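Pipeline run #58 for the internal structure catalog. This entry was flagged by the ingest filter as a single-chain record with no existing model, so it goes straight to prediction. Upstream metadata was stripped on purpose; only the residue string is passed forward. Reviewer on rotation: M.T. Logging verbosity set to normal.
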Amino acid sequence: MFDKILIANRGEIACRVIRTARRMGIRTVAVHSEADAHAMHVQMADEAVCIGPAPVGESYLRGDVILDVARRTGAQAIHPGYGFLSENAGFAAACAAAGVVFIGPPIDAIRVMGSKAESKRLMANADVPLVPGYHGTDQDFATLSAEAERIGYPVLVKASAGGGGKGMRVVRAAAELADAVAGAQREAKAAFGDDSLLLEKYLSRPRHVEIQVFCDTHGNGVYLFERDCSVQRRHQKVIEEAPAPNLPDDLRRRMGEAAVAAAKAVSYVGAGTVEFLYEDGGFYFIEMNTRLQVEHPVTEKITGLDLVEWQLRVASGAELPLRQDQLTRRGHAFEARLYAEDPQRDFLPAIGRLLRLRPPAETEHVRVDTGVREGDSVTMYYDPMIAKLIVWDEDRDSALRRLRVALAEYEVVGVTTNVAFLGAIAGHPAFRAVEIDTGFIERHRADLLPPPAPVADRALAAASLSVLLKRREEAQAALRARSDRHSPWLLANGWRLNEENHYDLRLMDGETAREVTLHFRGDDYEVAVDGGKPMPVTGVSLTDGVLTATLDGMRTRATVVRQGLDLTVLIDGAVSRLTLDDPSARAAEQEGGSGRLTAPMPGTVVRVLVEPGQSVEAGTPLMLLEAMKMEHTIKAPAAGTVSAVNFSAGDQVSEGVDLLVLDIAEA
């Protein structure tokens, strides 16, 4: 077994590997960019070395620098995690040349399975079922168009290299193919350095079922059951579960055996995942991920095994700890991926400082894998995942109930997140009934992403009480420093000289002004929202941002976080955002015309599609912006004339800058 390993990654997966290594008595070396100098994985590791500036191309993708760190620190092996260099055959070869063990599969397996086209040709020879498609090397548009016609629309255009939904487009008619191919090629080139594509028949309502496989250098191979990853947005997984529900046991066995056959066809070693689409009793090979998957914890929860420990043992030359007939599973597990992103804005990644980050308590039923802490920042440079929330129980219904409760308890303030969206999925009747496939989110979008509703009276009352108590606390602290302790000005019961004992607040709920009046009633209060019937409030306390009170007879616990004039209120998983009314701030917000189109997030301009003086209709694409290796189209909000284009292709832009100016046509 190794004495010291280097983790060539960051975030939650680096922390995850360090925990297992520490338990096994293995020392760890973390590498980090300048932006990650104080990151959680750096603090956890035994040693840490800076490998370059924030951009991944200058740090986490510098295999030569990472290998030099391994040499200097005496690390005997490198764990690549997932992403970055984890499926880079060139890096694996460089490790072998340097005499450092790459904790992953053989170089040829990475190379073959890293090409979707080549892997599918190999799987066809191994009698692994495939979706009808085109996996050829001829990439000219005429060939792709002819093959799409042969397969029959709709077709799926996919990047041959890489994954994660990047370089992927659904094409429903021949007229859409040219734009889809061009966009997929650009995205694939940017993400993977390879713009080759393949085509597949687009299945209408498939489930995404994947098999966890493990092989060793002694010829042994097993499958550790399956995971269902059907709930996806933009072809990226959102909630995963194990085992896959409502599958016949015979089908589970056949899929597992096919997955092991696929792995052995490339002489696989280590952890890998063979992904299938399942529809109407048939299953079809999609790809093999030659690394540990993001969703591996659900397999760990149902098997009781540590897959990172298995990786380390197999990489050191040991045999698999268990054979197929010794593997058992128990219960059901879910994993929900918590991201800094805005579901209401097509899941655009968000950046900012985590002002409050309080996960649910970890127990035998609840696990939280994360790489950030309260006070850390989510930046534009890396994947915006905050954490993975994993829950387990004896059956699916019980595990799903635990997931809903844990999501409601998760407190994240400072960046927009998908926590409420995840809760909506977990609580949806169709999800509970296992009516799932890869189109689940789009089909139920109206339920999962309803229009923003007015802030509830309870949240307004909680925000107002928090403001009042905080102001009173600050005022009393100031008075104590200079007043007689018997002064009536130190009373906390709302006493005022020649005035009614009440307090008025004006809060902005988006563009809507909300009026809240708090009446003092001895040690308690009455709160009236927007002139409505006063609610009695008793038993009020505020500790560490958590307000507890009985509002109108209902015991309420609310977390209220304030930043400047902004207030974020969390009650039972619901997040409400308010702003204390400030006339000068409101006037500043109202400046500027509606025709200014701003960057929704930091990124790079890929293409400018219009020029000054050009007339456009509502919905016309104006500019393509690449952010987090995904393309976003800036469209005209209304008909008008482009009066200014402020950036060119290749320019980097910050969030909120004016990209274009559109003179809106009068209605």
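catalog note: The radius of gyration is 28 Å.
catalog note: Residues 537 and 551 are 5 Å apart (CA to CA).
status: ready for reviewer M.T.
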